[in-house]
Each structure stands twice: as structure tokens, then as C-alpha cells.
Specification:
By secondary structure, this protein is of the alpha/beta class. Helix content is 46%, strand content 15%. Belongs to the AB hydrolase superfamily. Bacterial non-heme haloperoxidase / perhydrolase family.
Length: 320
């Protein structure tokens, strides 16, 4: 090969290298700009994602047509955990929407902002981007806190009804003015187990108290266990770690007092994760005219173990 040929080859390689660097820099610059977007910036939407004003991409599902029902999932899961309820309601004349919370499922994994205020603001931006009106908001476990904080921060102008299923409000943590809560050591233990071996901890949780599979005579579903573990491991390690503080230490009592729409509360009497007395029953005592349905012997994960009953109760509530 001649000197000229060598020079041409080197020039082409340099151009390719420069082009690759530029191609890499463009999306990075775009992400940086999105993360620093002004508070009044528009919420960007695609067919299955919404980019929040602070640059977090949220994956969402939007099935069916009719009055919208918005589902908020539990920790450390994602919108797939609602599939039984979404399938049922979409087949019965409702439009159903569920997003993966920031840091969970197919959404972005931001290092910061893993708290209830951000979760509620993200939910507000999903509702805004899809222009949902007369919506029914339903939250499971941590998602119930997300719904409560949404009402506290954004009101109920776009809301027709509210649902709290096995939900964490009013306050999970035991404090001087919340003696029925769980001691901080419980949540410190969850954090320690997450750091030590998050994968095994998730398997143990799904195999035991979450679905009540640790109770005498219980018949465990390996499929449910596997699905729970898979969803948990899809979430970010830092995001799920931070979320433990969010769901356990956030005080929702003031938020619940702002509920001014028909509210359905469903809780299992044998919930080993979010005990009913300090959660479902306590929330029902705060929310005006709330309807509390207690499932005897039901575990925390009753949207799966008792899905036919849950589906029927939610559908009846939505139609009422």
C-alpha cells in the first residue's frame, strides 16, 4: 500500500472515530439538557413512554377504552403486577393505564428523586400527558402512598374515585404519635438484606410472607414467586433501596384528609407486610366515607392470590 493510501485510510478512520464520538455525545447532551429542564417544560410522550420535566423516562401501558383507571404498583415491582386487574377492566369497558415507577421496571433509574413527592409528581405528569379526566386512581402497597401523595400535592380535579389496596398509608413507621406502626429496625433489616443479597431476599420475600406462602397449608405458586423476583430484579438497586425509606417513613395522614372522592379500601386480614390495623383500618378512619373491605385470611399480595375477588370488587366500585 502506498503512502497516499495509508494517509487516506488513517483519515477515514479518524473521521469514523470522530463521527462515533459525536453520535455518542448527542444523546448524552440531550439527556443532560432534559435533566436540567425548567419546571414549566412540556412533558414529552411517545407511544409507551413519558419523559418527565426532570428528564426521567417512564414506561407505561394504556389498554382499552372508556373511563380511565390508573394503577400504581407496589415495591419493588412494576406495572406487570397489575396485569390481572388491567386485563379484567379493559375487557369490561374501561381504559386502563399503569406506569413503571421511576427506578422500576422499564423506566429510567435516576440516582436521586426516589421519594414520594417525586413519585406523585411523576404520576401527575402521566395523567397530564395522557390528558386523563374523570379518572379512577388505584394504588397497591407503595402505590397507595403514591396515590395519597398525589391527592395531597395535586388535588382531585382530574379524579373521580380513589382506591387503596393493601396500601401503606397512613404511616408504616412506629413513632410517638403512631404507636401502632412498625419499629425502624424492621426497615433497617430490609435495607440490610437488600445490600447483602438482594436477589435472594426477593426470593425469600415472595416465597414467604408476601403471598402468605409461609402459612401452614398454603400452596405456593412457583410462577408467582418467579414473576415477583423477576420484576424486583428489573428495578434499580439504588432506587429500590431508597424506596424503602419512601414507603416506610412518609406520613400520609395529611394527604388522606384531602380525599374528597369516593374511596375503596381493600386489605387482607393476614397481611404480614403492611398490617391491616395500622394501614387499611387506620386509613378508613381518616378518609371521609371510605368503604373498607377486609378479606379474611388474605395476605399482602391479594391482587394475585385473591384476584377474582379483587377484580370483581374493583369493577363494581368503578361502575358504581
Amino acid at each position: 500500500m502506498s503512502t497516499n493510501d495509508n494517509q487516506k485510510t488513517l483519515s477515514r478512520r479518524a473521521a469514523i472515530s470522530a463521527g462515533a464520538s459525536l453520535a455518542a455525545a448527542i444523546p448524552l447532551a440531550a439527556m443532560s439538557a432534559g435533566a436540567q429542564a425548567a419546571p414549566g417544560a412540556a412533558v414529552k410522550r411517545s407511544a409507551s413512554t413519558i419523559t418527565t420535566r426532570d428528564g426521567v423516562e417512564l414506561y407505561y401501558k394504556d389498554w382499552g377504552s372508556g373511563q380511565p383507571v390508573v394503577f400504581c404498583h407496589g415495591w419493588p415491582l412494576n406495572s406487570d403486577s397489575w396485569e390481572s386487574q388491567m386485563f379484567h377492566l379493559a375487557n369490561n369497558g374501561f381504559r386502563v393505564i399503569a406506569h413503571d415507577r421511576r427506578g422500576h421496571g422499564r423506566s429510567s433509574q435516576p440516582w436521586t428523586g426516589n421519594d414520594m413527592d417525586h413519585y406523585a409528581d411523576d404520576l401527575a405528569q402521566v395523567i397530564e400527558a395522557l390528558d386523563l379526566k374523570n379518572a379512577i386512581l388505584i394504588g397497591f402497597s407503595t402505590g397507595g402512598g403514591e396515590v395519597a401523595r398525589y391527592v395531597g400535592r395535586h388535588g382531585t380535579r382530574r379524579v373521580a374515585k380513589l382506591g387503596l389496596i393493601s396500601a401503606v398509608p397512613p404511616l408504616m413507621l412506629k413513632t410517638a404519635d403512631n404507636p401502632g406502626g412498625l419499629p425502624i429496625e424492621v426497615f433497617d433489616g430490609i435495607r440490610a438484606a437488600s445490600v447483602k443479597d438482594r436477589s435472594q431476599f426477593y426470593l425469600d420475600l415472595a416465597s414467604g410472607p408476601f403471598y402468605g406462602f409461609n402459612r401452614p397449608g398454603a400452596k405456593a405458586s412457583q410462577g408467582l414467586i418467579n414473576a415477583w423476583w423477576m420484576q424486583g430484579m428489573m428495578a434499580g438497586h439504588k432506587n429500590t433501596y431508597d424506596s424503602i425509606k419512601a414507603f416506610s417513613e412518609t406520613d400520609f395522614r395529611a394527604d388522606l384528609k384531602k380525599f374528597d372522592k369516593p374511596t375503596l379500601i381493600i386489605h387482607g386480614a393476614d397481611d404480614q407486610i403492611v398490617p391491616i390495623d395500622a394501614a387499611g383500618k387506620a386509613s378508613a378512619a381518616i378518609v371521609r366515607n371510605a368503604k373498607l373491605i377486609v378479606y379474611p385470611g388474605a395476605p399482602h399480595g391479594l391482587t394475585d392470590t385473591h384476584k377474582d375477588q379483587v377484580n370483581a370488587d374493583i369493577l363494581a366500585f368503578a361502575k358504581s
